[in-house]
Write a structure and sequence with these properties.
Blueprint lengths: L9 H21 L14 H7 L2 H11 L1 H6 L6 H7 L4 H29 L2 H18 L5 H29 L2 H15 L1 H16 L2 H22 L14 H13 L1 H31 L4 H26 L5 H23 L8 H27 L6 H22 L9 H22 L4 H13 L1
Helix pairs in contact: 3-8, 3-9, 3-11, 5-6, 6-7, 6-8, 6-17, 7-8, 7-11, 8-17, 9-14, 9-16, 10-14, 13-16, 13-17, 13-18, 14-16, 15-16, 15-18
């Protein structure tokens, strides 16, 4: 009589059941659109990263502070750069455009890379190149070489921006994700406050090249902190095996989701209004109203404080009590009103005005961003549990591309008028509001029910 096989042990049966579950899940994922796929398995690194608390906020806040550090610290020196390199203001503003364009394109590359190889390796590689490119900016002999190095700086710095958002998506969902994004504003919002102040003080003892030396040191310190303290948050089981074609398919599936695209465009064009201010305000405040670099730095810091406070009100008070869609819509509406007031004052429709009314309108516009940007990102990322790197890349790329276009437009009429800045801000705010209302349709019951269900699953 043939020997009967021994029944499987409980451990062996559990292993077989787990393998069967993985096969079934993989088959199910293959048939589900990217935007609707479930979350990746949780590994021990994820709860540990959540427990890191303040340290995690500081690390990710430092990464999201890469754009303001790379740009805002440099802003007070823009008039000096025009004189030092014998270049017109519009050409010098291309150094901002090049950095933004680099960050936009770089995110499209780094985001899918982080979905395939994890978060840490692409992030550390990008930070290393960022440090080198920033050091080279300090050595640029002419404005076009500076533009080229700023492009490289932006390409590499994109790693910190896109991967920081992807890490948040790995760890959080629903209202918790919106709260964390608002908390990040407390840290990353310090950069716009401190950076122009530091830049203005650096100009007291050295020239604009010294600003890039300081940025190089800051980038090296941030790289070391990431190396030591940021764990991998995307386990191997959640990574993509495909190459460029798979990344393109993932992005195409995300863009096919109309509300995701609407939130992406709303955030992107709102960022255009913000960057029109960032790019033009050094000339508006210093050249038109005659303020010193130190006064400009102080006003810029005050406006950034408004953004930080609004972000904290959003995360600590409104999230969980008021619909994210309502807060986002209100933020966009306030942005439209502030930009309209700036245009009327700049065009002389309200008669002669001094610096104070213009500064007040800019303060309101900046503060509204604390309600607009984190909620647009959260609402978009809530619609995808899969390919968070690709989703983050699309969000960042849209924002920085629109910002890169806005930068030269604000100086198209020269340095002695603020009208182009106000026009770009108003146009960006109106398009953002139209995309939000027309594509996201926040009043649609089905969309609201889906968002609530996803928040309950987190």
């Amino acid at each position: 009589m043939p020997e009967q096989p021994a029944p499987p042990t409980p451990d062996a049966q559990d292993a077989q059941d787990a393998q069967d579950a993985r096969v079934a899940r993989d088959a199910q994922d293959a048939a589900v659109p990217v935007a609707d796929r479930p979350a990746v398995p949780v590994t021990p690194a994820l709860p540990a990263a959540r427990r890191a608390g303040l340290l995690l906020v500081l690390v990710l806040g430092g990464l999201t502070a890469t754009p303001p550090l790379a740009m805002d610290m440099y802003l007070p020196s823009l008039p000096e750069v025009t004189r030092s390199l014998h270049a017109p203001a519009a050409t010098v503003q291309l150094t901002l455009t090049a950095c933004l364009a680099g960050m936009a394109v770089g995110q499209l590359v780094v985001g899918p890379m982080s979905d395939r190889w994890g978060r840490r390796r692409p992030l550390l590689a990008g930070l290393a190149v960022y440090v080198v490119a920033t050091a080279l900016c300090a050595l640029a002999p002419d404005v076009w070489t500076l533009v080229a190095f700023r492009l490289a700086q932006g390409l590499a710095g994109a790693a910190g921006i896109v991967i920081a958002r992807a890490v948040v998506r790995d760890l959080y969902d629903g209202d918790a994700m919106a709260r964390f994004f608002s908390t990040l504003m407390l840290v990353s919002g310090v950069a716009p406050v401190v950076a122009p102040l530091i830049g203005g003080q650096i100009l007291r003892v050295t020239d604009w090249r010294g600003v890039f030396v300081v940025l190089t040191v800051v980038g090296a310190l941030l790289s070391a902190l990431v190396w030591v303290r940021l764990p991998e948050t995307l386990p191997p089981a959640g990574r993509h095996a495909g190459g460029a074609a798979a990344a393109v398919r993932a992005m195409r599936a995300l863009l096919a989701d109309l509300p995701f695209t609407g939130y992406m465009l709303a955030g992107g064009f709102a960022f255009a209004a913000l960057f029109a201010y960032i790019s033009a305000s050094p000339f508006v405040i210093q050249e038109i109203y005659g303020a010193s670099p130190q006064t400009f730095s102080l006003l810029f810091g005050v406006n950034s404080v408004g953004l930080v406070i609004a972000g904290q009100v959003n995360g600590k008070v409104l999230v969980g009590r008021v619909s994210l869609d309502r807060v986002l819509g209100a933020g966009l509406a306030v942005t439209v009103l502030a930009a309209t007031a700036l245009l009327l004052m700049s065009a002389g429709a309200l008669g002669p005005v001094g610096l104070a009314p213009v500064a007040a309108a800019l303060f309101v516009l900046m503060s509204a961003m604390g309600f607009t940007l984190p909620n647009a990102q959260s609402l978009a990322l809530q619609r995808t549990r899969h390919a968070a790197g690709s989703a983050s890349a699309l969000l960042g790329t849209s924002s920085f591309l629109v910002g890169a276009v806005a930068s030269p437009l604000v100086g198209i009429a020269g340095e002695r008028t603020a009208v182009p800045m106000a026009i770009v801000q108003l146009a960006g705010a109106l398009v953002a509001l139209a995309c939000f209302v027309g594509m996201c349709r926040p009043w649609a019951a089905r969309g609201n029910a889906r968002a609530s269900a996803e928040g309950a699953e987190s």
